[in-house]
Write a structure and sequence with these properties.
By secondary structure, this protein is mainly alpha-helical. It has helices spanning 2-15, 44-56, 63-84, 89-110, 116-140, 181-198, 205-224, 228-247, 254-273, 275-283, 287-307, 320-327, 342-368, 376-394, 397-400, 402-415, 419-430; strands at residues 22-26, 29-30, 33-34, 40-43, 142-143, 154-155, 163-166, 169-172. The model is unreliable at 421-431 (pLDDT under 50).
Length: 431
């Protein structure tokens, strides 16, 4: 009974990952204002993940997964070692708690008692309501505020809102239920690639119909986030999968070809409706786009200033913006942003020691999949990993914010599924 309850709670937690309802215990001040980073908060999905961890007790892993989890423990050690040397202790503790919750999510998803197929469906279903909300936001130009749903008020005419600016006016980007459209885009990329990899194992017509409808909704919404990083992520992810299959002389299944056709048609149709806004984002010629590009380029000029404060142990988890405020005082609080590069951000906050610990985790995940790199499952894993790395090269939320940490944990759990277990699950799906 307890195990069944834990499984159901985990599925509910995955389903609720897109929703940002949380209790903010402590907000950090930076440059005289309240910062979006380093806050001590507890979200609904985090409470559920903690309950699952308590109900299950000792986790059950395969031998390969145990090695990955051990590497994760080393990484957590590097995080707390960095906190011991940081000037921003409270910020580091708050960020470390978020990382621990992401670790709990990862370990529960890797647990052999977790049903991988059900997790995928819970994740996809959890995105459908934000997709509907995203269409409302784009078509009306605003998003309602809701404390209970964790939604902040957004309006295309308010300064600071994520918009696309063209000659015809300001177009609100789709936030869905997320703090920023880029995060929404990252979730949609993962959802699409996971569906792409799973659809070949679905035998029932009803399941394929659900996946087809989900593909239509997610692919069209990906365009409406106007997230260039997400666009590049799904592009390189799909190119990697198709390229590897061609190189190893494998062909897409009929279901996968239908998936790509439906997704492509929806993308083209959405591009036809919003081609002016898409061109503005791609060319980066508008006023808003120029400001965005200028800000991101300038962030790289300050990276070495922050990194040099403590190259070995870093400035502390979550402390990048606070360290930057010490180096460059006098800016407004919203001007202090983490560098839009996951890898440089981790190096800055955890130092070279943290980088080595992080690479150790990556290597353990890669090593456990070396035996299946030439299989269809292995190719889809590589494509999903490439997509996440591309997104991380252009943004910071995979490390700096809870929704991003949760997405990283979710993807890593997919990549850390035991090859033997995947084979058994796939045979069960086909039957």
């Amino acid at each position: 009974m307890k195990e069944k309850m834990a499984n159901w709670l985990l599925l509910i937690g995955v389903f609720l990952l897109p929703w940002q309802t949380q209790w903010i215990a402590v907000s950090q001040l930076n440059a005289g204002g309240v910062s979006d980073y380093g806050r001590l908060a507890l979200g609904v999905s985090q409470v559920i993940i903690l309950l699952v961890t308590c109900l299950r007790g000792r986790p059950h892993y395969t031998t390969e997964q145990t090695r990955v989890v051990q590497a994760e423990y080393v990484f957590l050690g590097a995080v707390f070692f960095s906190i011991a040397f940081t000037r921003f202790f409270s910020v580091g503790i708050a960020q470390a708690l978020q990382i621990i919750f992401a670790f709990f999510l990862f370990t529960n998803l890797c647990d052999r008692r977790t049903h991988h197929k059900e997790v995928v469906m819970a994740f996809i279903c959890g995105l459908l309501v934000p997709v509907m909300l995203g269409w409302w936001q784009v078509l009306t130009g605003h998003s309602p505020e809701s404390m209970w749903l964790g939604l902040a008020y957004q309006d295309a005419h308010v300064v600071g809102t994520a918009v696309v600016e063209t000659d015809t006016g300001r177009q609100l980007r789709a936030y869905g239920s997320f703090p920023h459209p880029n995060i929404f885009g990252g979730y949609l990329v993962v959802g699409l690639l996971v569906l792409f990899g799973r659809i070949q194992f679905l035998s029932s017509r009803y399941a394929r119909s659900v996946v087809t409808v989900s593909t239509m909704l997610l692919s069209s919404m990906l365009i409406l986030t106007f997230s260039r990083g997400a666009w590049l992520g799904v592009f390189f992810g799909c190119i990697t999968i198709v390229g590897l299959m061609w190189f190893h002389r494998q062909t897409l299944s009929s279901h996968q070809r239908v998936f790509m056709l439906v997704g492509s048609v929806c993308v083209i149709a959405t591009l036809g409706l919003f081609h002016t806004q898409v061109v503005s984002r791609v060319r980066a010629q508008g006023r808003v786009e120029q400001i965005s590009v200028t800000e991101r380029v300038s962030q790289y000029t300050h990276f070495f200033d922050v990194f040099s404060l403590n190259p070995l142990f870093g400035v502390g988890p979550g402390a990048y913006t606070f360290a930057l405020a010490r180096i460059e005082p006098g800016w407004e609080v919203w001007d202090y942003q983490p560098i839009h590069n996951l890898f440089l951000l981790v190096i800055s906050e955890l130092g070279l020691l943290g980088l080595l610990a992080w690479l150790h985790v990556v290597w353990k995940i890669v090593r456990m999949n070396l035996s299946i790199v030439k299989t269809t499952e292995g190719m889809f894993k590589i494509g999903l990993g490439i997509a996440l790395l591309v997104i991380g090269s252009f943004d910071h939320y995979l490390w700096s914010l809870w929704p991003g940490l949760a997405l990283s944990a979710l993807v890593c759990s997919f990549l850390a599924q035991s090859p033997k277990r995947i084979d058994s699950v796939n045979k069960k799906d086909i039957s």
